[in-house]
Amino acid sequence: MTEAHLTVRDLTMAYGDRIIQRDLNFTVNRGDIFIIMGGSGCGKSTLLRHLIGLLPPARGHIYYGDVDFWAAPPTRRQAILRRIGVLYQSGALWSSMTLAENVSLPLEEYTRLPEAEIQALASFKLSLVGLRGFEDFYPFEISGGMQKRAGLARAIALDPEILFFDEPSAGLDPISAKRLDDLIVELRDSLGATVVIVTHELPSILAIGTNSVFLDAEAKTMIAQGPPRELLHHPNPKVREFLTRGGTLHE
Ligand SMILES: Nc1ncnc2c1ncn2[C@@H]1O[C@H](COP(=O)(O)OP(=O)(O)OP(=O)(O)O)[C@@H](O)[C@H]1O
After folding, report:
1. How far is it, in rounded angstroms, from Cα 60 to Cα 15?
2. pLDDT tens digits for 116-167?
3. Strand ranges (DSSP E) for 71-220?
């Protein structure tokens, strides 16, 4: 049964007087791998920042289940944020800490588990992303793809219900990017999580996206939504061209 996890209603986003996007309306269902796409500078990262509680809307609402996030009291918001995992573009690992220490951080901060249990959980999360045995490595000792996966292990440390990714495959070779895609699907299934991804990686969008929204910088609003593969035939040529890299169908 489909159940709305995240609902965006009449959302307008602005920096000061400058409107970035207006009148956004879409729903992310539980279990979706939801893609936020569109050309450079259209406001994808800005939308992500609104969804994860970093920027308040200029107008409109963001609902987690039936809770209006930005209208909710701070304790309610904190409880929602506690159930969110975020993987930023850079992976954002602390370079002076080992992988195990990086993954332990949110556990130290948000739980009162004994140290031995935190260590065991950190090793377990690293094993889920294929990094068993790398606990004592520092980020500079491993490849870019492994760093992304370590960042992912940290993002899932607290068993999030919803995982957000900002350009997860940026800077990765196609094989590592494919591996990360497979891992995202695997974790969605094993954690029973919902996934929201900002990306313009076409292979990823078409391979793993179950639903999407397409933002346009010129129109300053969404010009399409739906499963990415269905958008390959969208009446708006901008959408079709984006998804076919200007012409060739990748079906
Ligand atoms: N902190 C900020 N203050 C003012 N303007 C900003 C800020 N962050 C982004 N912008 C502007 O908002 C617009 C949307 O930026 P955003 O980074 O959300 O786009 P994007 O779709 O994620 O772009 P890209 O695909 O290039 O990463 C851009 O014109 C950008 O210059």
Report:
1. 15
2. 999 999 999 999 888 999 999 999 999 888 898 899 899 899 999 999 999 8
3. 84-87, 162-166, 194-198, 211-216
Going by alpha carbons, the residue nearest to atom 25 of ligand 1 is: 40
Compute the distance between CA of residue 234 and CA of residue 240 in angstroms, rounded to an integer. 6
174 Cα to the center of ligand 1, angstroms: 26
Ligand 1-lining residues (CB < 6 angstroms): 15, 20, 38, 40-46
Give residue 126 CA to ligand 1 midpoint distance, Å.
32
Centroid of ligand 1 to alpha carbon of 164 (angstroms): 17
Nearest to 39 by CA among 229, 149, 199: 199
Query: Token pair 């606990």 is at which residue?
Result: 135
43 CB-side CA count, 13 A = 26
